[in-house]
Amino acid sequence: MLNQFQRLRKEEQEEERLLLEEARLERERRLLSYADCPWTQIKGSKFVYCRKNGRVFQLKPNTDKSWTMYRVQQVDDLTKGEMIGRYRSRSDASKVVAKAAFEPEPWR
Fold first, then answer.
1. What's 35-96 look like in SS3?
2. What is the pLDDT of residues 44-84, one digit of tens each?
3. Across all residues in the chain, what is the average pLDDT?
4. Per-residue pLDDT tens digits for 6-28
5. Is residue 47 within 8 Å of residue 77, measured between CB atoms?
6. Buried b (16+ CB within 10 A) or exposed e, 15-51
7. What is the reported pLDDT for 108?
8. Assign residue 42 a region: left if phi > 0, alpha if psi is -120 to 50, beta otherwise?
């Protein structure tokens, strides 16, 4: 009886893991196909990206568990973007993205 419960639990955990991986891949696909998407970590990247209103934002983790947000032109870890600010959490950064994504771009 105990083995049956363990087997069912393992099956449920595996199913949940597969669903989470599918959702992550879907977000990654949306980000790379230029569609708006929430914060997404590309496989192999240590940074988190978000696309809103056609603009790409990048979050870099800091050693003190805060995040530094940049406005980048493409989804690439090597590109250097314009720093927007430093935030305590991803939700704080999301609030700024909701406003910054719809403001006019500064002339460069």
1. CCEEEEECCCCCCEEEEECCEEEEEEECCCCCEEEEEECCCCCCCCCEEEEEECCHHHHHHH
2. 888 999 999 989 999 999 999 999 999 999 898 888 889 99
3. 91
4. 999 999 999 999 999 999 999 99
5. yes
6. eeeeeeeeeeeebbeebeeeeebebbebeeeebbbbb
7. 53
8. beta
* Six token digits for residue 67: 């995040």
Percent of the chain with pLDDT over 70: 96
**Cβ-based neighbour number of residue 10 at 10 Å:** 10
Of 60, 56, 93, 90, the closest CA to residue 75 belongs to: 56
CA distances to 5, 7, 99 from 31, rounded to whole Å, are 39, 36, 19
Please give the Cα distance from 74 to 95 (Å, whole number). 21
Backbone angles phi, psi at 77, to 5 degrees: -70, -25
